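Quick one: structure tokens for this chain, please?
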Amino acid sequence: MFDEILIFGALGILAGLLAGMFGIGGGLIMVPVLIGTFLSLDFNNEIIVQLAIGTSIGCIIFTSLSSANAHRIKGSVNINHFKPVAAGIIFGAFAGALFAVQIDGLILKLTIASFILIVGLDILLDKNIIQKIFQFKPKSIFVGSGIGFLSSILGIGGGTFSVPYFKGSGLSLTSSIGTSAACGVPIAIFGTLGYIVAGLNVDLLPNMSLGYIYMPALIGVSITSIFSAKYGADLAHYLSKDTLRRLMASWFFIISIYMFIV
């Protein structure tokens, strides 16, 4: 149990830093590491991936709140862009959780790994593929529903989608990251509700689970991530645009490879 607490605490520090730096909620780190941790704890293979995603979404409630507040203090959250997108996120995040638990775990894991690899390449090459996809109309509420739905399935705070969307809407990279961090709050809250509801009658889940949320991991990760998110936000305002882009791409490549082989 002590080793488990140390793993979850260290994961929270890293997730918080990433949440603050990239506006991604830390999910792209948490999901792969939680999958590996749950495998080592001999949890049932049929529910490990969904349990990792649900727990990640639950942890993002705290990382996104801390990160969003840090960016708000620095004046980088654009409320006018945030409000309509957040309205769509509420529905999309809840629906995404209900959908994700119906997918086979292996397929879901490989899908996430492939997606992370594509995003990493897109960021590194600066092709703005996701940005172009999310420039269709109608914007705002409809786009928010899509961001919430996909983010809830992948167990992320939505920055992978919302940062390029806000950037394509005319915001600076710093404001895009800050506004994206704010969007992580409704994604996490309503995604978590969806994973709790979906897992209420699932017998394969381990003890100390609330639906598809593993509470020891939720507590351990959240406590440390709250404090580290502030320092991640400070780094985002200190580093250059090119440095941020390369760091994001590097993290995505590492995590993608890990997801394919774990």
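The chain has eleven helices and two strands.
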